Amino acid sequence: MQIHNPWNPDTYTDASPDAENAGVNRMIIGAMRAGKPWNAMAPQELRDFLASGNSPLGMPVYSERAIIRTIPGPAGPLTLRTFIPEKIDGVYLHIHGGGWVIGRADGQDALLENISRNCNLAVVSVDYRLAPEHPFPAGPDDCEAAAVWLAKNAKHEFGTDRTFVGGESAGGHLSALTVLRMRDRHNYTGFAGANLVFGVFDLGLTPSAASWGDEPLVINTPVMQWFIDHFGVTDKARSPDVSPLYAELGNLPPALFTIGTRDPLRDDSLFMYARWIAGGNQAELAVYPGGAHGFTAFPTKMGAAARAKCEAFLRG
Hints:
single chain, Rossmann fold, 8-stranded mixed sheet, 37% helix
């Protein structure tokens, strides 16, 4: 599947929709409208609903190849879910999504197992603390601790100090924050690349997120605000320490930004890509017409193309 030119206006229209992907989008909207809105649930209620497999996201599938280990964290032992290939060419520090409130490191085993096998990367996924029980900065602190551990121990643990970082949605946000914290607090600029997949980079809401409305295509404006409020950053949403879009972005690793045009967070990737480039860094923007939030997890040709693109970046 061809990746469309992000600067061609036709990319953002429905003139040539992907019928398969459009069908999935309609299914998600219908299923979510038939159920209780996410932002009308308590955090644990939403977690239990997603874990039940009754949401449009389906039931999580767990891999027997996953290896659980712990490292010291800022609030006690920090769990890492790892996948180790036979041949290791690098290490991928993965940070899961879920709006800082839901999600776990074991929620995307198939994705991480494939990355490990196809890219010859040891994958280390962080089970960071979730809000609102542990509001900002608990989650970012845990991700920073994992990155510090990896910077110090990758060579000894995995035989290589070639490291990548990345994640999806809130994981893209936390990955960007981690890169910035490692640069500013630890003088570490050694990441070989940042794989930032439909990340949220402005917690004050970019125009596309603020104007999306209540159409429930996985997320919408009320759901994003619900996540941000529970994260505990509403009063400081555009601080550079919270929203990486507003940070000084020099001396950062090459990045791949992946986004679909039917994602409320579309502008986050468009804006962050431009600022990443303006900071003097290498970056690529991959835009997928009609792609919804989370589309890389869908069993579609578009989802497969995006996953292959990310893997190619992590191999490069």
